[in-house]
Amino acid sequence: MARSTRNVYLLLFIAIFIIMSLILYSSIDSPSSMRRADKNAEVLRLQQKMSSLEENLRRNGEEMDRLRKELRESERLRKELEKKEIGEIFAQVPEPRGGGNKAEVVRRFLSKTTKPARDVCPMRKEMSVPNSEIQMFDMYNLIDFANTDGGVWKQGWEVKYDAEAVKTEPQLEVIVVPHSHCDPGWLRTFEEYFDAQTKLILDGMATHLPQQDQMSFIYAEVSFFELWWRGLDEPTREKVKGLLSSGRLELVTGGWVMADEANTHYNAIIAELMEGHEWIKNHLPKEALPRVHWSIDPFGISPTVPYIMSAANITRAAIQRVHYSVKKELAKQRNLEFVWRQMWDSSKATDVRTHMFPFYSYDIPHTCGPDPKVCCQFDFRRLSGGGFAGCPWGIAPQLINEDNVATRAALIYDQYRKKAQLYKTNAVLIPLGDDFRYDTTFEWKQQYENFQKLFAYMNGQKEWNVKARFGTLSDYFSVLEKHTVEQKIDLPVLSGDFFTYADRDDHYWSGYFTSRPFYKQLDRVLQHYLRSAEIVFSLSHMSGGDSGPASEESFERLVRARRALALFQHHDGVTGTGKDHVVKDYGQKMLDALRDCEEVITVATEVLLQKKGSAAGQLQLDESRSAHDALPERRAAEVGSSLILFNALSTVRHEVACVRVADAKARLCFDTSIAPLSLQTYSVVSEASSTDDGERATVAGTARVESNDFKSASLPSGNVVLKNDRITAEFDAGTGMLESVTPVGASTATKTHMKFVKYGARGHKRMNNGGGDDLSGAYLFLPDGDAKDVPSGDSHYVVVQGPLVSRVYVQGPQEFRLLTTYSLDAGAPYVEITNEIDITERMQNVEVAMKIESSVDSADSIYTDLNGMQMIRRRRQLDRLPLQAHYYPMPGAAFVESAEERLSLMGAQALGVASLKPGELEVMLERRLLQDDGRGLQQGVMDNLRTVSHFRLMVERMGGERSAEDERMGFLSLPATSASRSLHYPWVKILSEDSDLSPSFIGLQAPLPCDTHIVTLRTIAEPTKYGSARPTTAPSSSAALVLYRPLVDCRSTTPAADECADSKGEDSFSVLFGAGLKSASTATLTMLYESKGTTERLAVEPQQLMAYKLRF
């Protein structure tokens, strides 16, 4: 109200000013007065004018004084209102320990005001040039990638400090942070790890932390924590809650797992983070809500993750696995701590204060300082009796006693001091842990007692000017922020990503972008069906559907499916870097989750479409899987039954849908349009009883095809040409492979020659620094040279042309049993490409890629996506970096472009991508490696399966201004964004024996703009009841609505869909959801915090994630 009043006064002031100006102008320059001849009269008139002017100015001044007073009063009222709003927010935000981020919560809530809509097209140029001092794209031009031996710090240099100067510097504050990194699957399955180690770790924490009053501990993986919590008695639970409330135990990040950052889609990252945060909020004290992010093991770091964290109100982060040359360059400038800002952000709204570990690993030998042989001596688990071998450097740890404490403390103090030289402040973070540590009483006792003696001694040495203690990650950031304020230090702003990761030599971790592609594809299938299940369940719940046992059973299934998807986002899950039996376990969990999703979808659909008084018929999805390692099969619709389509998109969907019909070899395809988040019922009738004369497709092939279901024809003499109303595609007459694409209206075709290539694995070699070499494996891609073409051999192909769908089926090189399908649907501006590949019988190292050679003059740049959320520019530098360094994650899309045209490739699964020559896109499809690559897995990748991958290729003519050289981001066009979204979330097809269902259910009463996407509509869980033998979780009467609005590139001349609504980013909740919705309020991304007030409209800015809590 106060802001509105202020705007009225401002407009009133402007209006008065304009009127007075016009009066003055008229009174001074009146033409009639200029025509008077009598000079005396003119002088008199001028005097009168001046008197009038003085009076008007006096009155104007009085009016301005009055308006100033009213504006001051308006401003006072506004501030009082903000204080009231802040108070309401503070009422539900726990007071953070040691300078936490209450202010961040307030800032985020107050920033969520509805802004006036503006044209998004000019924003591309604003948002593609980062507002940062350090830009990773540019840093790669500065780095010397020579892998020189730095001495004890192999990848650095000899670090020194002035022992006299430190006496007068600000005191060195050392925070030693005990931690245990627990993989929810890697060499063992999730359950195997829990039984063998993780339960012991958490039991030890609950036992020893209360006894060790100066000890602290941080823990990350809520999946393990929840499983452990199930088996606790109430006194132990209360003890753990007390530790969390006191701040001595901290849950960092709070996700279900520590997610991979290369292959994951932002939808799944948000899902696993929400699962962890929801459990924490439901079962632990408010002090346990996560405030800091801990990402120490994912193999390369994406800026999407800190953006998601900032949207969840986590604004501090610690990261580890970054290219060793990047670490060295940042360390030289003491820039290992920085403010990480999103490339598109000029408002600081996405800033995350970030600490980067400087050395090789997060284990104890590589975290206390630059000399690992010294740091290893202070890993007291390695003492005799600890169950560990001694240190690899040959010098064992020693028990600390009165005789050696002086020399031992001096030794580790020296490392702390040297580590501090790499940072701008005198705050030093010392992680104390490793994989599955603190699983024995021995370790809890020895680490605590020996370090306490070291701390006591070094803190007593005044000339050392140091204070060391145990603490949590939040404790460290509190100390860091205190130092930056006291010493008036501004951390630099950094933008960009940290791919592709190399830990040593030329060992780039670009292999895992593709490893186990079968399960990478299954991950996206589950993501789609889980999202659909979330939406239909929430809609049925919101519409007043069954809230009894059936609803609770469905919700239990939904929770299991959520946790299966969340578990696979682990950085040894979706990465394809687990042991064979672990991969199978993940696969079985995902298959079970798919079946749970099917049950949720079909039950909710029955609720939403069932007519009163009619009996429920059996519903099932048209897609089924017999096993976790089998490709899906299509169920057939019976004549006389019903087909139900669910549109999982938030916009009107106008696409072709196809279904297999029983007793027919062909599929039935039809063009349809369905409202957003809505169900539509169709009857399957026989051709004889249909009033619509369906047109049969024509089939031709390299061999004669005879069929009663098709019209047979012969291939043309030249290349095969398929077209729809948007594009024309040409295919090679000899191989059937794609050759070119021409958008409608274009005068020339764009070459898109497609083929397959393969790589071998190089042999062992000595490295420049004298170290040994490893071979390609699950993590590493170390090819034996450039790719070699896969001979097409005796390729055969079949062309099917119908009124709505046309396809080319190519039986490709039999060496890899390749089957490629190209599809053109009516109205689609892209060619859909499906590849099936099978290398299960190969007994040598091989990696197979799809290569598209285009005529697009893209120079040295390619744009690849980060987690499906943003497109980042990459530069080819083959003269400075090896081939394997040029492979990047492609979890969703990539494109190359010139000033005139763009070639975009959207994918339905995560794979690796490169552009090794101008105009090229090369996507790795499958890899089979016979050996381990020395990164701990202790096996090769030989459990290959027949695997499918889906793509959409789009050629667009680009108008307007070309991309500038200083632009570091790209953006998909609106048609490409829509194509990618519908590829990830295709029709959900439900078969029903009941032909008497309601014809439709409208889920969203009005479409959202085509650039706005509903990430999830997720029913919030009530706290789990752990009292019974089987824990149960019931649904609440509220849901989390998460939206994302990517900025789109308006320069594409490809038209968007006709059904697109205006892109204002604002809509009324009551209009969208109807009477079933009681209220809506803004919230942080994972629902940890929410505003007390309600809101009537949703508003999403470009490149923004927005969350609302809906009550029904």
Automatic annotation (TrEMBL):
UniProt key word Nucleus: no
GO annotation, cellular component aspect: Golgi membrane
Catalytic activity from the UniProt record: N(4)-{beta-D-GlcNAc-(1->2)-alpha-D-Man-(1->3)-[alpha-D-Man-(1->3)-[alpha-D-Man-(1->6)]-alpha-D-Man-(1->6)]-beta-D-Man-(1->4)-beta-D-GlcNAc-(1->4)-beta-D-GlcNAc}-L-asparaginyl-[protein] + 2 H2O = 2 alpha-D-mannopyranose + an N(4)-{beta-D-GlcNAc-(1->2)-alpha-D-Man-(1->3)-[alpha-D-Man-(1->6)]-beta-D-Man-(1->4)-beta-D-GlcNAc-(1->4)-beta-D-GlcNAc}-L-asparaginyl-[protein]
Any single Pfam family the record assigns to this protein: Glyco_hydro_38C
Uppermost EC category: hydrolase
Keyword terms: Disulfide bond, Glycosidase, Hydrolase, Metal-binding, Zinc
Keyword Coiled coil listed: no
EC code(s) of this entry: 3.2.1.114
Gene3D superfamilies: Glycoside hydrolase 38, N terminal domain (3.20.110.10), Glycoside hydrolase family 38, central domain (1.20.1270.50), Golgi alpha-mannosidase II, domain 4 (2.70.98.30)
Glycoside hydrolase family 38 central domain segment(s): 507-590
GO molecular function, one term: carbohydrate binding
UniProt record, GO biological process: mannose metabolic process; N-glycan processing
InterPro entries in alphabetical order: Gal_mutarotase_sf_dom, Glyco_hydro/deAcase_b/a-brl, Glyco_hydro_38_C, Glyco_hydro_38_cen, Glyco_hydro_38_cen_sf, Glyco_hydro_38_N, Glyco_hydro_38_N_sf, Glyco_hydro_57/38_cen_sf
PANTHER family in alphabetical order: ALPHA-MANNOSIDASE (PTHR11607), LYSOSOMAL ALPHA-MANNOSIDASE (PTHR11607:SF3)
Functional note: Catalyzes the first committed step in the biosynthesis of complex N-glycans. It controls conversion of high mannose to complex N-glycans; the final hydrolytic step in the N-glycan maturation pathway.
Protein name (record): mannosyl-oligosaccharide 1,3-1,6-alpha-mannosidase
Species name: Pristionchus pacificus (Parasitic nematode worm)
Recorded name of the encoding gene: WBGene00272685
